[in-house]
Amino acid sequence: MEIKAQIRVLEEIQKLDKQIYHLNAERERIPRELERLRERYADEEKKVKESEQRLRKRHLEIKEMEGELKNKEQTVKKYQLQLYQVKTNKEYSSLEAEIGNLKADASALEDRIIACLDELEEADKDLQEEKKRLEEKRQEFKEKEREKKERSEQINRQIRELEERKKPLLSQIDPSVLSQYRRILERKQGRAMSALKDGACEECGFMLPPQVIEEVKIGKELVFCGSCSRILYIRNE
Ligand SMILES: [Zn+2]
After folding, report:
1. Residue 177 alpha carbon to ligand 1 centre in Å
2. How far is the CA of 67 from the centre of ligand 1 (A)?
3. Cα of 165 to ligand 1 centre, how many Å?
4. Quick check: 237 pLDDT over 80?
5. Domain 23-172 falls under CATH 3.40.50.150
6. pLDDT above 90: residue 18
7. What's the whole-number mean pLDDT along residues 39-68?
8. Residues lining ligand 1 (ion), CB within 5 A?
9. Cα(201) to centroid of ligand 1, in Å?
10. Rg (CA), the chain
11. What are the domain boundaries of the chain?
12. At a CB cut-off of 8 Å and minimum separation 6, what does 212 contact?
């Protein structure tokens, strides 16, 4: 087949290859996008786990304070019994003073425990909210992950279809023309061909010498842009 006719077919091939190129690029982005989503979710999860740990620690601290309070109360009881057994006034008043101190300590401790429990109750509520939001985010993440995987499969199918449509066209092109086309396609991000536009290469804007334009019009052989090396052609209006 004449070069001129082959170029017409190449234009059709180029249209398909452009689509394939974009689909491939989209498919290659998917793993990175998934990774980003996964990281974002993992960050959220980490924050909730940290809150949970903080609260668990708070719970333990309060338990300890409660134990301490119980000790103080028991000591008070013990001392109160001892009051009956002391022999001297001095001993009596010193024990009484000790009891007074312990009671004051215990009451301060009790106040602190109550304040901490109130605080903790609020924090627990916040944590439950956080967990609920996290669960929503997990589902969102799963949903997006599913969508991305589905899209990837869809792209595979679309590319296979396009490749099928290309086959009968490819068989019409000389192997040497095809290999030149493919080399450029690879280097030029899926665009191996460029139309003439107002005396310039449409893809790169390079002004073409009149002689080159003439050669493209004659169409006896492949003509390349002197700047971007793409195969030049005249677009069918
Ligand atoms: Zn060019």
Report:
1. 18
2. 83
3. 27
4. no
5. no
6. yes
7. 96
8. 201, 203-204, 206, 225, 227-228
9. 5
10. 41
11. 23-172, 174-237
12. 223, 226, 232
Confidence check: pLDDT of 236 > 80 = no
Report d(CA 35, CA 40) in Å as an integer: 9
Residue 74 has pLDDT above 90, yes or no: yes
Question: Is 158 within 8 Å of 194 (Cβ atoms)?
Answer: no
- Give the C-alpha separation, 30 to 162, whole Å: 20
Name the pTM for this structure.
0.77
Residue 161 CA to ligand 1 center (angstroms) comes to 30
Q: How far, in Å, from the CA of 206 to the mean position of ligand 1?
A: 6
